[in-house]
C-alpha cells in the first residue's frame, strides 16, 4: 500500500531533516528497485509508440522546426537523437530532450493525467530517452526510468494543485523527469534529491502560457522542463546542491507560490518494494485536442449521426455544456477569454476552446489534427454562428467525478443541453472518451500502432515505420546500441520542404 506523506511549510529554524522532505521521499521512490509488472512494461512501450506518432505528425510545424534547428546547432558525441533526423546524427542530450519534447507536445495529442492538477506524463519520455541514448543505457534501464517519471508525475498531480495558483503544470514535470533520469542511471538518493530540487526551482512558471492568446510556447514549456531536468541531473552528479527544503521552506514553493505557510498536502507515494504502476492510471488521446474535450468530441460525433439537423446553426437556439469546474474555467466559456470565440485565434487557442471544438465536431462528424484547425475551417460563417451559441456551465456532480479517486467514477465528460429553434430540447451526456480504458473503444497495442501508422503516413518511409515498430516492441531486451534506434527519420527531402529560421546558434 502507498505511504501518505504530510507535506507542510517549516521555518528555517526547524532545520527540517532532508529525510523528512518531499524531495527526498521522491528520490527514495526513484532509487527503490521494485520489479515492474508486465502490464507496466507494455504500457511504457505503448507510450513510446504514441510519442513517436505525434512527433512524426508535427515535424513540419514551425515550433518543431525551430526547436530542431536549435538542437542541431549543438552536435555532440556520443549524444542523443533528434526526431526526424538519422540516428547517426547526435546532439547534446539536453538539446535532444528539448527538440523531441516540442515535437511530442506540439499537437496536444499524447497522453494525459488529470487530478488536483493537469499533466501530460508522456513529456517525461523525451528527456529520459535522450539521456539513455547519450549514456549507453539498455532497454531495461530505460523502462525503469520512464516508470519512475510517470509514477512521480501521477503522485504529484494527484496531491498538489498548481493551476489553482496560476502556476504552470511543468512544475511537477521537472522533478518527475529528473527522478526518472536518476532511476535510469542508478544514481544515489542524495544526487537525485538535489536534481529534483534544482528542477523544481527552475520550472515554477505562470500559466499565462495557457491563457488568452495561447502562443507557440505551449509546446515549448514541457520541453523546457525536460531540458532543465537533464541539466539539473548533470549538476547534481557533479556534486552541486539545490535549495533546501525546496517544497517546505518558509520561502519555498508551497509558502509563496501555492497554498501558503499554513498549507498541508497529503502526498501518497509507493512504499519500499511496491511496484511503480502510476502509468496505468494515465490515458492517451484519440483526438488532437485538450483532454477534457475528448469525450465531448465523441459525443458531438455521435450527435452528428443521430441528429444531423444540429449541423445547421439556423436550427440551434443554444447549446449549454454542463461539465466540471476545470473544463468550464480552462477550456470553456468560464475562462472569460474572448479569444476562445475568435475565428482568427491561434491553433493553440482553438485547441483550448471547447465551444469551437464541439461546433466543428458536430458539423463534420470527425476530428482531424490539421483540417479541424485550419484557418479557413475556423472562419466558415456557419461554424462561427454555431460556435457562438455554445457555452459551458459548471456542474458540481461533474466536478466531483473529475476528482474522484474511484477509477470507475472518475470522468472528464459532460452533459449537453441543446435547445432548437423549433422549441425541442435534447439532452445527451458522456462520461468517458471512447479511447479511455473504461470507454466504448479502449486503446490497446493495436490502436497505438494504428495511430502511429496513420500519423506517420507520408512522413516516414514504410521500411522506417516497420523498423521502429519492431524495435520498440522488444524494449526490455534492447541493447544500448538498439536504444539509439528508438527514434524516427523522416523520408528523404521532407524536412527540406520547410524553411529553418536562423537564430543565435
From TrEMBL:
Keywords: Lyase. Residues 20-265 form the MmgE/PrpD N-terminal domain. Residues 287-475 form the MmgE/PrpD C-terminal domain. The keyword Mitochondrion does not apply. PANTHER family: 2-METHYLCITRATE DEHYDRATASE, 2-METHYLCITRATE DEHYDRATASE-RELATED. Belongs to the PrpD family. This is 2-methylcitrate dehydratase. It comes from Ruania alkalisoli.
Amino acid at each position: 500500500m502507498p505511504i501518505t506523506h504530510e507535506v507542510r511549510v517549516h521555518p528555517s529554524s526547524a532545520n527540517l531533516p532532508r529525510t523528512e522532505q518531499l524531495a527526498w521521499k521522491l528520490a527514495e521512490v526513484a532509487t527503490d528497485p521494485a520489479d515492474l509488472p508486465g502490464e507496466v512494461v507494455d504500457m511504457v512501450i505503448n507510450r513510446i509508440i504514441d510519442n513517436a506518432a505525434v512527433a512524426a505528425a508535427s515535424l513540419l510545424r514551425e515550433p518543431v522546426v525551430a526547436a530542431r534547428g536549435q538542437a542541431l546547432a549543438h552536435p555532440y558525441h556520443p549524444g542523443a537523437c533528434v526526431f526526424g533526423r538519422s540516428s547517426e546524427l547526435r546532439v547534446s542530450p539536453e538539446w535532444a530532450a528539448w527538440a523531441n519534447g516540442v515535437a511530442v507536445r506540439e499537437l496536444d495529442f499524447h497522453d494525459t493525467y488529470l487530478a488536483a492538477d493537469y499533466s501530460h506524463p508522456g513529456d517525461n519520455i523525451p528527456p529520459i530517452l535522450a539521456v539513455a541514448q547519450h549514456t549507453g543505457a539498455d532497454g531495461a534501464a530505460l523502462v525503469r526510468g520512464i516508470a519512475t517519471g510517470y509514477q512521480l508525475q501521477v503522485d504529484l498531480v494527484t496531491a498538489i494543485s498548481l493551476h489553482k495558483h496560476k502556476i504552470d503544470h511543468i512544475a511537477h514535470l521537472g522533478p518527475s523527469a529528473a527522478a526518472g533520469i536518476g532511476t535510469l542511471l542508478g544514481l544515489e538518493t542524495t544526487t537525485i534529491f538535489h536534481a529534483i530540487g534544482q528542477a523544481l526551482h527552475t520550472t515554477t512558471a505562470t500559466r499565462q502560457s495557457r491563457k488568452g492568446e495561447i502562443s507557440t510556447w505551449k509546446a515549448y514549456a514541457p520541453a523546457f522542463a525536460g531540458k532543465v531536468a537533464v541539466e539539473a541531473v548533470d549538476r547534481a552528479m557533479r556534486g552541486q546542491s539545490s535549495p533546501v527544503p525546496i517544497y517546505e521552506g518558509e520561502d519555498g514553493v508551497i509558502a509563496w507560490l501555492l497554498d501558503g505557510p499554513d498549507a498541508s498536502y497529503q502526498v501518497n507515494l509507493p512504499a519500499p518494494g511496491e511496484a511503480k504502476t502510476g502509468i496505468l492510471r494515465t490515458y492517451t488521446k484519440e483526438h488532437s485536442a485538450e483532454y477534457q474535450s475528448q469525450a465531448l468530441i465523441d459525443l458531438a460525433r455521435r450527435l452528428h449521426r443521430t441528429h444531423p439537423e444540429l449541423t445547421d446553426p439556423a436550427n440551434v437556439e443554444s447549446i449549454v455544456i454542463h461539465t466540471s469546474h476545470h473544463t468550464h474555467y480552462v477550456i470553456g466559456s468560464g475562462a472569460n477569454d474572448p479569444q476562445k470565440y475568435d475565428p482568427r485565434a491561434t491553433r493553440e487557442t482553438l485547441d483550448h476552446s471547447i465551444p469551437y471544438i464541439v461546433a466543428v465536431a458536430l458539423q463534420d462528424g470527425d476530428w482531424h489534427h490539421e483540417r479541424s484547425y485550419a484557418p479557413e475551417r475556423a472562419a466558415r460563417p456557419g461554424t462561427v454562428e454555431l460556435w457562438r451559441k455554445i457555452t459551458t456551465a459548471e456542474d458540481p456532480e461533474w466536478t466531483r467525478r473529475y476528482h474522484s479517486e474511484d477509477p470507475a467514477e472518475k470522468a472528464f465528460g459532460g452533459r449537453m443541453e441543446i435547445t432548437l429553434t423549433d422549441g425541442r430540447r435534447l439532452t445527451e451526456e458522456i462520461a468517458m472518451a471512447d479511447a479511455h480504458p473504461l470507454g466504448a473503444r479502449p486503446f490497446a497495442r493495436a490502436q497505438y500502432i494504428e495511430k502511429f501508422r496513420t500519423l506517420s503516413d507520408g512522413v516516414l518511409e514504410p521500411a522506417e515505420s516497420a523498423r521502429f515498430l519492431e524495435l520498440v516492441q522488444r524494449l526490455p531486451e534492447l541493447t544500448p546500441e538498439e536504444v539509439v534506434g528508438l527514434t524516427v527519420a523522416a523520408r528523404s527531402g521532407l524536412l527540406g520542404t520547410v524553411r529553418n529560421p536562423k537564430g543565435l546558434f
